[in-house]
Amino acid sequence: SVATKAAAFIALFRVLAALPGAPVEVWGTLVAVVAVLTMTWGNFAALRQTSLKRMLAYSSIAHAGYMMTGLVAGVDALNAVLYYLFAYAFMNIGAFAVAAMLEKTTPDARQDADIAAARGLFDRRPALAVAMAIFMLSLTGIPPLVGFFGKLYVFSAAVSAGWAWLAVAGMLNSAVSAYYYLRVVVVMFMSSADEASYVRPSLPAGARAAIAIAVMGALLMGILATPVFVELGRAVVALR
Fold first, then answer.
1. How many angstroms separate the CA atoms of 230 and 170, rounded?
2. Which of 15, 31, 174, 201 could share a disulfide with 104, CB 3.0–4.6 Å?
3. Of the candidates 150, 50, 53, the residue with the CA atom closest to the CA atom of residue 93
């Protein structure tokens, strides 16, 4: 879960910071290699998925790799990692909530919905399709959405700390992820629904609220990216 990832990254950062010498000097290369392997494996595993939830699950591994990119830059990049964590929380929770709704549109709701279940979603549920598009484009890192700023901050921190090759690896992996994220958007907006196999579900109030909060959070963190980033920097200073 997102909370687990957040706790793990903060714990890892504290462990690295407590080691003698600068964390980057001691662990930098190892963390960088693990970051590249993590993001690459997650992205290529996600490419092969037809299940929307499985695609999102594997892509979450790739996002962990992106966040690790910020760790190699040391203390000065912790606010970048935290920004990415909060941004990812909104994007991921929202995307999984929509995926859960799509499961109810399939004849056998016990099975994970294929990406094809999103076919023609804009015609059937325009608000749901727009919300999912925001999540998919944000996860891809399309500007000016929140995911773009999250990647900008962690990759910029890596470059500033002398890890430009790691930032390049992250950008190349982001390009790979664009294929499977944008595929969902294309299916929702540019494909026709198979009405014969479509079951129109009711949207529980809790699910609608979760998706709405995720959309608002993602949009606000993108619009207010700079002030949020600055405030997180102050919080990091207080944690030292």
1. 23
2. 201
3. 53
Asked whether the predicted pLDDT for residue 165 surpasses 60, the reply is yes
> Tokens at residue 187, please?
């299916």
Asked, as a colleague might, if the bond just before 204 is cis with ω within 30 of 0, I would say no
Rounded (10°) CA dihedral 206, 196, 191, 208: -10
pLDDT the model gives residue 142:
94
How far apart CA 118 and CA 115 sit, in angstroms, is 6
CB atoms within 10 A of CB 107: 9
Mean pLDDT of the chain: 85
CA dihedral 206, 133, 79, 67 (to 10 degrees): 100
* Per-residue tokens: 83: 């920004």
Work out the pLDDT band at 196, boundaries 50, 70, 90. Answer: very low
CA 130 distance to own-chain centroid: 17
Give the global pTM: 0.86
Angstrom CA distances, 233 to 22, 57, 131, 206, 217, stand at: 19, 29, 29, 33, 19
pLDDT higher than threshold 70 for residue 86: yes
Which of these, 221, 69, 71, 63, lies nearest to 155 by C-alpha position?
A: 69
> Domain residue spans in the chain?
2-239
pLDDT digits (tens, 9 = 90+) for 132-151: 999 999 999 999 999 999 99
